[in-house]
Amino acid sequence: MELKAYAKVNWHLAVGPRRSDGYHPIVSVFQRCSLYDTIEVKTKDGPFETEVTGLEGLCEKGKSTLDKAARVWHEETGFDGKLIIKVTKRIPSQAGLGGGSSDAASLLLYLNSLLSKPKTMSEMINLAMKVGCDVPFFICGTRAALVSGLGEIVVPIEARTDLEGFIISEKAQKVSTKEAYDRLDTRAVIPDFENPRELERIYRKPVAEWTFRNDFDMVNRRPDIKTQEGEVLLLTGSGSCHVLLTKRKKLTVTDNQVAIKVSF
User: Fold this and answer.
1) Of 147, 150, 233, 256, which is most buried, counting CB atoms within 10 Å of its CB?
2) What is the pLDDT of residues 188-208, one digit of tens each?
3) What pTM was computed for the model?
4) In angstroms, rounded to a whole number, what is the distance separating the alpha carbons of residues 84 and 253?
């Protein structure tokens, strides 16, 4: 089975104070984009085991979100067998694009499809949260959503299809999600959350009139990109990638940058 795992962007990402359990509540606007990883999955009889290839150099063997999702599924359902997983990565890692989370969600949805009585959406979201806080958005299969709580509250909204642009990645810049959250905890003032429905109203406006914010701007470097009238450059997730919303067909970048054309 070949699966497509699509990237996401955050048009808005507000982060609250760290809770006693170590997690941070958020209010965000998520949208899926056209960039995706390809995942090939084969199953073999035998005791539970995972074999993941294609992520060499990105994470320690056995520590990927795909390995974690498979273990969660095994523990929840008693699934036995060997999962042979080959990943073709297109989504930059440690970039705020949810690549690992999307990979994990795609695998969980595939495994759920193998059950004679598939798990409900609520059950799948509970499983997804055991893998990562961005995974529920991808489990829901919606193209755009208002996301809150720790990531488990996903309210689908009608996705705009008129948006396009470039994902801009700095080759030498990677952002650890944990370190980014730790740095946010040094804020002297934490702004109040916006009403999610107000965020949807902003989302419907012309891009040049958007007033979204990303609290991780304080821990990321803005790329040296000159915007034109009507364009918007936004950080996605905890970084390090930015999204330039533009009608330009080509974008000139430096030798240290990569620009990936995407649509939404």
Assistant:
1) 147
2) 999 999 999 999 999 999 999
3) 0.95
4) 38
